[in-house]
Amino acid sequence: MIQGTITSVYGSDINTDDIIPALYLQQSTDRAYFKAFAFDKFDPEFRTRCQQTSANIIVAGSNFGCGSSREQAVYAIKDNHVVCVLAQSYPDIFYRNSLSNGLVLITLKDTSGFRQGDELRIDLDAGIIHNVTQDTQVAFAMHPDDKRTFQQGGMIGRVRAHLEELLSGA
Question: Where are the transmembrane segments (predicted)?
Answer without folding.
Answer: none
